[in-house]
Structure formats: C-alpha cells, structure tokens
Amino acid sequence: MPDEKMVPEWKMFLPSYVHTVSKYITQKSAETLKQYNLKACYLPYLVTLFQKGNATMKELTEQTGTDKSNTTRMISELRERGIVADDRKNKNSKKYNVHLTEQGRELVIKSKNEFESSIDVLFSDLSAEELSTLIKIMKKTQDSIKGK
Predict the structure, then answer these.
(1) 57 φ, ψ to 5°?
(2) Cα–Cα distances in Å, from 131 out to 19, 47, 120, 127, 144?
(3) Which residues neighbour 81 within 8 Å (Cβ) at sequence distance 6 or greater?
(4) 100 - beta bridge partners?
(5) Which pairs count as long-range contacts for 123-126, CB under 8 Å and 24+ apart, including other chains?
(6) Record: fold of 7-118
(7) Distance between CA atoms of 100 and 113, rounded to whole angstroms?
C-alpha cells in the first residue's frame, strides 16, 4: 500500500489512469482492426479464441465480461465474415464450441504484432523489473476482483 499521505491522491488518480489506458488501448486496437474492416469491439473475442483455441458461448461471455446477447451478436457477425466457425451438428444445438477459422487465425497473427507494439510504447519508460512488478500487481488485483 502507498504511504498514508499518498493514499487519497492515489485513489483519485486511479480512475483517471484506468480510463486513459483503456482509451489508448481501444484506440490502438481500433486502428489495427480497421485495416481488416473490423471494430475494436471484436478484439476480446478474437483474443480469447486465439488463446484458448475454442470456447463455448458461455465461456466467451464470462471471459469477455459481456452479456450473453452481445456475445451471440458478435460471434454471429464474425461467423458471417468467415472469421469464426463452430462445431454445431445442427442449427438448434444449444451447446457448441466456437473457434477461429484459418482466415481468423491469420488476421489475429497479422494484427498481433502491431497491437503488441502499441502496448510496448505504453510501458516503454518502465524497466524490466518495474514491468514485472506491474504485471504481478495487475494479476493480483484482477484475481481479487474475480474473487479468487
């Protein structure tokens, strides 16, 4: 915890910091995905599927922190564009896995380097030790939010 004199200032700074970083990442994501005629709102789904290989709609909803109807709409749009597919045996199947198509994997791989470069810029003034500490802190706070 920061020293007691800093606490009020630190607590007031945090929302502004989170907003600024979120806005920067969203803007850079939008710029990267625009080249592929996609919006930044697809990014959480693409990243999740790239990392996991496949996921159920429920897992995608939980992982992206969105609601079920939004996940359904986003995946439907990505399916129509040929970026994702699923393993449904028939149209009425309730539970199925969604995965990136070859086209989807290529898109994520191509945009990954650009996106990572923009993240590198964000943290370029940090030493390796500071970055390592920051990552540990971010994971720890994320776990506490998720209730682990």
Answers:
(1) -60, -40
(2) 20, 22, 11, 6, 20
(3) 38
(4) 84
(5) none
(6) Arc Repressor Mutant, subunit A (1.10.10)
(7) 18
Could you tell me if 98 and 119 are in contact, meaning their C-beta atoms sit under 8 angstroms apart?
no
Is the pLDDT score of 71 beyond 90?
yes
- How many residues are recorded in the chain? 148
Neighbouring-strand partners of residue 98: 55, 86
d(CA 125, CA 137): 17
pLDDT at 134 over 60: yes
Question: Which long-range contacts link 71-80 to residues 24+ away (Cβ below 8 Å)?
Answer: 71/45, 74/41, 74/42, 74/45, 75/45, 77/42, 78/42, 78/45, 78/46, 78/104
Q: Which of 11-20, 101-110, 125-134 has the lowest mean pLDDT?
A: 11-20
- Contact, 96 vs 84, CB < 8 A? no
